[in-house]
Amino acid sequence: MSYGVNPEFATTNRERIFRYIVLAVLVLYTLRLGYLQIIQGSEYLQKSETQAIKQVTKEPFRGCMYDRNGKMIVQNSTSFCVAITPNDFNPETIPYVAKITGLPEDEIRKLYEDNKKYRFQQAKILRYASPEIIATVEENHEILPGVDIVVETKRVYDYKGNAAHLFGYQSEVNDDDIKNSGFYYKQRDVTGKTGIEKYWDNYLRGNKGYNFVAVNAAGQAVESFNKGKSDVDALEGNDLYLGIDTKLQEIAEREMKSDHGGIVVMDPRTGEVMALVSKPDYDLRLFTGNNFSEVYTDLSKQEDNPLFNRAMQTQYPPGSTWKMLMALAAMQEGIIDEHSTISCPGGYNYGGRFFKCHGVHGNVNAQRAIHVSCNTFFYKLGQQLGIDNYFKYGDMFNFGKTTKIDIAGEQSGLLASRSYFERHKITGNLINGRLVNLGIGQGEIGVTPLQMAAYCSALAMKGTYNQPHVVRSIYYRESKHLEKNAYYTVELPINKSYFDVIHRGMYDVCNTAGGTATNVKVDGIKVCGKTGTAQNPHGKDHSWFICFAPAENPTIAMCVMVENAGFGAERAAPIAREILNAYFHPEKVQSEIDSTSTKNNTTAQVTNVNGKHQ
């Protein structure tokens, strides 16, 4: 058998076809090689030079805040930050970077060392960079590897006044902030530290975005990694719609002037806070620069402590503003009814001590006792009520605990109980002795203006207690819908008819001869209120006033507390009157403001002419 080549297979045609195929393959390879080298050569050269993938953070805009009338009052503006990427940064350039930014060399070196473990993540070293700094960094990019300008935001406040303790300030995160955020925050990020900014931080901060960029050995961006498919867009923070009335806030701040104290104004129907003021305060705009440490240190060293939130953190006795609670408790417990009277001969003897009253009131019932603020009535009522009932009803109105308002920093105050006294070795008749003072809101009791405003709102609504809150609804950026926020409402277990007695007594305080706040008049509006003068062992008494209006259908309730200002009618009540006027007659208040502004402008023009400064 022969295994030679078949002469019929190796024909001329087959040979020609084979040669064409080989030629075609060579042509295709040549064309492909030319395409890769000539057309895409620069792209592959960049890829060959790529040394790492750099993560560039895109900061989200923080959520904005709107007042109850839809006006944007807290928003953002663009700012710029100097940042370093540890993997690319050359430590030998630290002296030059320090010269450009004005930062100490040790501070930059520490930031670099602390962030080495995050090799490809940018670490901020200077925020709110000036145009001069930005230009210098950009011009020297080649000799400053790993130093970049990053876009971020800062807060802008569009209202008159401060509202510092309401909105709160922002500052750089600490280790606890980073951990509590689930490591969302990195060093040198900014977070809310007080007020609304802190409480609602998770909603306001948004979600960071990330661009992934291929960089070469010099740290320069070569191209977008994976053609940008791996990038993550930043998501802006959610917007908050508040119950705050900007005009009332401004008026309340103005009326407090240089006094020390707190004001809380609420809508008793919903629990929405329409104004919250603590004085002295500070300008939040001071915290939107690079001198945060200096500003904070200066404020913390001031004797009048402007950082202290007197609207939510004080612990002062409420004085006579407490008397309505005592009357309600006694009526609900069946100790008295609306017709029951107690004799006031000008005071009350107990334990060898005479507790004075403001006058000799004779036989008074609950309404009259509130009207003339008869201490004797409530001295005796306190003892008849007993410590357990005293605590029961105080606790019912949320005294001795927080109201759970959605502002960071609230304190609970003090409401004495039987166990409290026993811990302090006070028992039996000694507790009865304490109840004399407790009946008129003195002694072992400490409240905040916020608690008192919520209490006054519950009185106005005849036992419906609405949780105080500032945020009425949230605009969720991701789903693009506005959602009303939910808060708790409690119907207090007190007969509503007893609140009618309280309303009549508080109406008399402001509208009937002998009342302690007849100087609180508002055209066409029936105001119900109660003054209080809280004893202060360290100086002049504290001035309290709570009120609501209109009497027949309350839409506003408030508490005004002024430290060391004497009788409630002298200082606190007139402040409340101006706030009520601004609420019910805004056109009149605006007219007065415009008139004052025109007068001031005229005076200024005359001065300029006379002083030849025009």
Care to describe what's here?
The protein has 20 helices and 25 strands. It has 2 domains: 55-242, Penicillin-binding protein 2a (Domain 2); 246-279 and 312-588, 3-Layer(aba) Sandwich (Beta-lactamase), CATH 3.40.710.10. The N and C termini lie far apart (125 Å). Helices cover 37% and strands 21% of the residues. The chain is an alpha+beta fold and 614 residues long. Strands 2, 3, 4, 5, 10, 20 and 21 form a 7-stranded mixed beta sheet that branches. The chain has a 5-stranded antiparallel beta sheet with strand order 12-11-25-24-23, sandwiched between helices. Strands 1-8-9 form a 3-stranded antiparallel beta sheet. α14 (375-396) crosses α16.
What key phrases describe this protein's structure?
disordered C terminus, 2 domains, Beta-lactamase, Penicillin-binding protein 2a (Domain 2), 614 residues, seven-stranded mixed sheet, elongated, 20 helices, alpha+beta, 21% strand
Question: Short description, anyone?
Answer:
With 614 residues, the protein is an alpha+beta fold.
| Share of residues in helices | 25-40%
CATH superfamily of the largest domain: DD-peptidase/beta-lactamase superfamily
Count of distinct strands: 25
Reported for the largest beta sheet, the result is: 7 strands, mixed
Report the C-alpha radius of gyration, rounded: 36 Å
CATH classification, class level of the largest domain:
Alpha Beta
Q: Count of helical segments?
A: 20
In total, how many domains does the architecture comprise?
2
Q: What best-fitting shape do the alpha-carbon axes yield?
A: elongated
Strand content: 15-25%
Structural class assignment: alpha+beta
Mean pLDDT: 88
How far from one another are the termini? Answer: 125 Å
Low-confidence spans = 45-50, 600-614
Q: Provide the CATH topology of the largest domain.
A: Beta-lactamase
CATH architecture of the largest domain: 3-Layer(aba) Sandwich
